[in-house]
């Protein structure tokens, strides 16, 4: 229990939007040092849950704690020093350089009437390098591809130097090399003691890079546990509506998922 | 700003064994130094431009005053033969133009940042048209006879009331997103426009009608030191206050979610900045009527020259906005002398082509 004190905890979180329940009774905890992968079909409520976990949306029910303290108790700047959040939307249409954007990750650490310090620039450089975005530093973000912008957003989150990292589909727009790179960055952050939550769509990658997976469907948490426990042929059929074979991948030592066919009969009633 | 410790571009590169990430392109540190030099040079030019604009505008008129005499008089020497003209007529008008231009430039830059839209201008939430309703009501009803302060004070109160109304409507929907505020602003602008039209159509006499038209176009005729005082205090205070939020404005350009994630109290800071922008706009409109295009074009111009960083953009918009309106007002007085154009007409004449030029020069438009 002491471990979760350093990480992120959700206790019976529920979110209603316009009378619809988007997230229902979700409890989970991510201790420092762990990568939790949040998976589930489209419309399962992952993004809404992640926004609540990140403290940028207020839940209708339940509570979220960061380092043992309720996230709603923090002012935004205090929260941003404890938890960094990378939203899905990477659109940036003003002519900042990538470095300018990453430097904004230091915003919460610098007082309103203080100038940025040399240490802020150093951390910015380090974060750019850690995210693999250092070669983009002086380019305008408006000239970057969607994937490159995603790396810049990751670097900005790393520049916040927080104990918790929450990412909404951090590898969605990336090519294969950058996907692996970002997932390795997340693993490294966990090795340093950070608690990491990431929404992921590629189930094999999720299995390989996450310590535990949390599977959501229709706003509810279906199951949480080690990848091999969560990703079974049965859950793939029930939740994703896909007939698949799950076996061990000898090369990666992780799971291999071979989707065979859409399984209409297996799709749960509410998805029809 | 940035420290010299991190200007070495090569140090930022990946290891040589990592060809994909490679070393940073050569000269990236040089790029940043060049940018900084560009900013310093630009501000030197802005400052010279502003001083020259003031001196020229004070010197030129029906009576030509030598520049040297102007400088002496402006610096407080009231022994010269033209000291009276300068002190009682020219200087107040020029100073009102300067403060109004600066206020509108900064207000426009703030609105464009908050709405993340380069088409936003100071009046986008109905602040200007709110001021117009109050001002036109004062003129048409004859309340302006009570004193020269009635019109500006009424207009200022009208401007701030419009913002209060926007927030009151937003509160009824319990939705304070920027898109909702914008939609409410559009509705209020239309409503206020209708109210003004109704009052104009039913104006009791031609005298009032002429006053209304004059005010709605924006003009700086017969400005006095009272007007200077009315605009200077709020403009200086509000610009100084806005400058405390330059970094927040930068982060907010990334969008609401990113700004929140970075620790910006988006709702609170947006409210503070909208009030400050309304004070700036209201103070400007109060003493000069509705002067268009300054708040739209000037921030664009500075952004094109120096980039979107508000630490540079806001002071730049203040200086250039002030200089622009001083020169536009000079043209209004002198261009077809003795036929005068209104200041607001000239800003539109100058502003519209400049704006088109900026639009055509935009990189993305060219690429598309």
Automatic annotation (TrEMBL), chain A:
The record places domain ABC transporter at 8-243
What's the protein called, per UniProt? ABC transporter ATP-binding protein
What InterPro entries does UniProt report for this protein, alphabetically? AAA+_ATPase (IPR003593), ABC_transporter-like_ATP-bd (IPR003439), ABC_transporter-like_CS (IPR017871), P-loop_NTPase (IPR027417)
Task: Cite the SUPFAM superfamilies for this sequence.
Answer: P-loop containing nucleoside triphosphate hydrolases
Q: Which domain of life is it from?
A: Bacteria
Keyword Translocase part of the UniProt annotation: yes
Q: Which UniProt keywords apply?
A: ATP-binding, Nucleotide-binding, Translocase, Transport
Q: Which organism is this entry from?
A: Phytoactinopolyspora halotolerans
Which Pfam family name is an example for this entry?
A: ABC_tran
Tell me which Gene3D superfamilies the record gives.
Answer: P-loop containing nucleotide triphosphate hydrolases (3.40.50.300)
- By its UniProt entry, which CDD domains does this protein fall under? ABC_Iron-Siderophores_B12_Hemin
GO terms (molecular function) for this protein are: ATP binding; ATP hydrolysis activity
